[in-house]
């Protein structure tokens, strides 16, 4: 236990302080199964203290000019940029993404968003315009409760916390207890940057205790949650008792529609990458590949060839493309879905259940072909490196299958005719669609339709989630 990091303090009012509780939570490295840290199992009393600190800090923070708030955020971004390599190593150890990917994705992307919110704080017009005799102004909603997941543990924190701070809100955060260390590092940076006390507070712990206390607290004006649809529904129910605003970014089962005129090699290669990023632990992963039924065998063979190049192993090794799943529960869950796909008659083209690695929560690249719409692996979010290839009859059938889901978070369309691809994309009931492998845009609004959530994150749309609209009638 000598190398176990002690992070058993919580951050309230600008100080690392003891939790009211005595419980502790072990943090497990998914690649080695070793305990690497211990954090506090926070309590409802801790949440109450944090909310009081955030409420006390709100008047002064919200009274600052946007430029003054932006300057504070910019200092945090500058410190993060100086330490990007060590932060990438920390998050890789924390949740398993290979270091070579973690640096641009798990650290670089949040850094870009912090920088953007620093800019938006300074440049956004909070007095947006006039409607007749009414001046329309936008004001911070107040104290924000943020509850964040383990798959992109810094990115999801930044999208909530720094958007809220840019808008003049103060924040109480419950980070994931599964991979919390990168968030603690962020709080250390905020402290070092001199963020005013009480503006940003952290209480570690479990969702049913700390998360529910945040959602239920009468002095929390808004809750922003990212996680499973089941947990998101619970947050909404609890928050409804105090009639607070709720933003939810939930699950997905996104369709990647490859039309009959597409370049199959490009489309399938990119589609596998979009499915397997972060070992498939991505809510917007394109896990359903929809292809012309008559080309199923050709696509399956190509997908298998591409997927075999996704080397599984040590996240610190240069050639690793798939790290471990985040914990034992996720490992069992993903393997059970593979078993279910076989049981229901899908064709297992590539089996990732056995990797030859005796330690760590590793599942290799897995490809199913001839998957039908009613199969479990076509309908439920697996959250692992598992691709389901589904055949369609024609373009209308492809759109129908794409929309035949409880979810609507992301999607993709491939066609040699860009106008055709855009026409299909417009018919898809989902919050974001990649056309011919379009690049991810950190400023574009991110969020879902249907059971994938409520509200949007990132860029201006993400900032505005944390603002109230007021009309001054003159």
Automatic annotation (TrEMBL):
Family annotation (InterPro entries): Ald_DH/histidinol_DH, Ald_DH_C, Ald_DH_CS_CYS, Ald_DH_CS_GLU, Ald_DH_N, Aldehyde_DH_dom
Pfam family, one: Aldedh
Enzyme class: oxidoreductase
Aldehyde dehydrogenase domain location: 16-471
Coiled-coil stretches noted in the UniProt entry, renumbered to this chain: none
Catalytic reactions of this protein: an aldehyde + NAD(+) + H2O = a carboxylate + NADH + 2 H(+)
Record carries keyword Protein biosynthesis: no
Active site: 249
Keywords: Oxidoreductase
Record keyword Ribonucleoprotein present: no
GO molecular function list: aldehyde dehydrogenase (NAD+) activity
EC number(s) recorded for this UniProt protein: 1.2.1.3
Family label: Belongs to the aldehyde dehydrogenase family.
Protein's name in the database: aldehyde dehydrogenase (NAD(+))
Species assigned in the record: Rhodococcus ruber BKS 20-38
